[in-house]
Q: What sequence folds into this?
């Protein structure tokens, strides 16, 4: 199963490092093109590869890690998704203003899912800061990652990956329940929870 990341900011880079550290290959794309990713690829090592956004969208698991306001442009030329798994790592807020976007009463992932018809969307990797995300094993236990979605098989794929990367995954339910881990608004973002055996 091949994995890609669309977006090479702090969250995308943290996820790429998690994957390569776990011995998994990952393709990374951004809006500026593969050549702009050369320093990051060199830093991550031989398991990381720079690709175009179109190429990244064809992976079995696609992490979407793009600033909220840029998502529509980033995905408008992509698809059909044909049931591929998309992990939505985004929150409806961004620097420098950190002013919440008006979602019209919907969860952020419900809006992202509408932009990706045919994708099996799973919300995950969005509620921790990159520094925490970078360290799944901590304080003698496993850092907790929440995930949510409407497709049981896709959620299981993401749950297995969360475990493989060294986290302890907790299923919140559907995308509406995933609002609990949405920032801003939900009570769970930023909570540094650790599962001890």
A:
């Amino acid at each position: 199963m091949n994995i890609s990341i669309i977006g090479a900011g702090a969250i995308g880079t943290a996820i790429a490092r998690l994957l390569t550290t776990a011995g998994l290959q990952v393709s990374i794309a951004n809006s500026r093109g593969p050549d702009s990713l050369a320093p990051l690829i060199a830093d991550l090592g031989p398991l990381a590869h720079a690709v175009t956004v179109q190429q990244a969208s064809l992976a079995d698991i696609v992490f979407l890690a793009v600033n909220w306001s840029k998502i529509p442009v980033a995905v408008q030329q992509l698809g059909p998704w044909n049931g591929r798994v998309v992990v939505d790592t985004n929150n409806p807020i961004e620097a420098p203003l950190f002013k919440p976007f008006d979602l019209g009463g919907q969860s952020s992932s419900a809006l992202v899912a509408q932009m990706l018809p045919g994708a099996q969307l799973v919300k995950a990797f969005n509620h921790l800061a990159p520094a925490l995300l970078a360290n799944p094993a901590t304080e003698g236990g496993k850092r907790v990652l929440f995930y949510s979605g409407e497709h049981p098989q896709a959620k299981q794929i993401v749950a297995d990956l969360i475990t493989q990367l060294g986290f302890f995954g907790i299923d919140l339910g559907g995308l509406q329940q995933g609002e609990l881990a949405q920032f801003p608004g939900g009570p769970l973002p930023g909570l540094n929870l650790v599962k001890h055996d």
Summary: The chain has a mean pLDDT of 93. The beta strands are 3-6, 26-29, 48-50, 61-64, 85-88, 120-124, 137-138, 141-149, 168-173, 194-195. DSSP finds seven helices and ten strands in the chain.
